[in-house]
Amino acid sequence: MSQPPPQQGFGAPYEPRPGVYGDPGQPPQPPNRPSGGRSHGRLVGLFAAVLAGVLVIGAGVWFAVGGDDGSDGKKPLAKETAEPEQPGAESNGKKTPAAEAAEINKGRKEGEAKVRWIQKNGVDVPLGASALGPWTTGGIVAKAMYRTVSGYSLEDGSQKWSLRLPADVCAAPTRPTADGKIVIGLLTDTSADTEENCDKLQMIDLATGEAGWSVTIDRAPNNDMLRYVIMAISGDVVTIGGLGRAEAYRVSDGKRLWGKLPGPCEVEGFAGGSVMLASVNCPARSKGEVDQEVRRVEPVTGRTLWTYKVRKGWNVDAVHSVDPPVIFLRKGPLVGGTSAIAVLNDDGTFRSQPAAGGDALEGRCPGKERELGWNLDICMGAAVDTDTDTLYVATKPRPAGRSFTNDVVAFDMSTGKKKWKVPSPATQTLMPLRVEGGKVLLYLSPPDPRTKGVGGGIMALGPQGGTPRPVLRHPASAAATERAFEEAIVLHADGRSLLMLPQVSGETDEEELELRTMIAFGD
């Protein structure tokens, strides 16, 4: 039993934003550090902003492939690269990603891993763009932006295929199926009298880039508005939730399995993996208010197996583990609210609440960095070890020099009591990824610019705490490049690590084009 299963080739990261279950004052926010997490209020706020015409959703492409962006009604086609695209020399004299990687590797010291490859955005994206993914299968890592889904070699970063889509990508699950399939959401065509809706689904084989089935969700019966949706995959089932709507389809053939759950409650979204959990809003006794529930749902039938009623006034913000269920809750606004973690038993009954004490627990949710992909299971920073009944959580970063530092706290999941706390190195932060071989793996950020000779990397802590031990040392010569990957999504497996930016933007077109968007480490 564990968190949702990792993707092939790279382990899926997880992280929460817990705190004290109550209303104590929150410690001051570190400067220039946006608060993470997500909530029903956030989704509603985004929805309201669209109606008010004040929210602009960015769009863009990782690697453009020739052709018209418009929809011609034809099935999207994957364009396979005949000869793998390798970063080469540029006429404007700018340093290429390949040259940057080579320069970094020249400066690496004994025991440090090499930079396998670096990728830049390379495309002028209008107003910035959200990146969905990364998803791995076999030797491929794929990501989606704007109207393109592209697959790259994990070995050298060369582009293996690129799938041009007829419309903007608007949603996607955090993880693919075990056999490397993903289903993404696309915006439907709009006219002057209709709102954009994320109601077209497209299945894609991540190994080949081949487009499979597609379907448009029928909105007529309920006049649903599906602009911001939450997607998840559990087994061979993909679910779509958000703003009251729930749909489930079979990934292998696109068959619709079920729709709205029975009763007056509405689904906010699902979290996938070995178990499927749903965040549900139900009418409260007080008019205009809602009560929240967490339900375990049978993926194929939609049948509710158990229900956990969230304490009144609290919202489900994220799901950090589905088996056992570890739920991040929030009370109050997205910024400045109070947060907590609830650990549940397998039958949905309350088990414990980690007692943070004076520590401000926090996770990293890439959704806060982008306007798309606010999935319930997207957050990183917490890891579950069922063998030792331990939950590992990161604390909120606090200022340290020109950077930040934090701690990792271990809790007994049966009692919620703190086992130990381990500090990060000065001017660096630690973020739990997952448990492997009885140890928690953590991402160590690079230090501030004044700290020389030190890089980031992947570290490990045993169940008794102690000093973090290096598993994969990123070269100190890569620290400046790695620092630019702020709030990155981090994957690690098989002795290698991968960082991806969840949002692409720049002050100028040139800055946006040159932005480094993925970097891979390992020998």
Automatic annotation (TrEMBL):
Record's protein name: Pyrrolo-quinoline quinone repeat domain-containing protein
Keyword Cytoplasm found: no
Reading the lineage from the top rank, the first entry is Bacteria
Q: Which Gene3D superfamilies match?
A: YVTN repeat-like/Quinoprotein amine dehydrogenase (2.130.10.10)
**Residue ranges occupied by any Pyrrolo-quinoline quinone repeat domain in the UniProt entry:** 116-259
Concerning SUPFAM superfamilies, the annotation shows:
Quinoprotein alcohol dehydrogenase-like (SSF50998), YVTN repeat-like/Quinoprotein amine dehydrogenase (SSF50969)
Keywords of this entry: Membrane, Transmembrane, Transmembrane helix
Organism for this UniProt entry: Streptomyces globisporus
For bias kind Basic and acidic residues, which ranges apply?
A: 71-82
Disordered: region residues:
1-39, 69-99
One Pfam annotation reads PQQ_2
Q: Where are the transmembrane segments?
A: 43-65
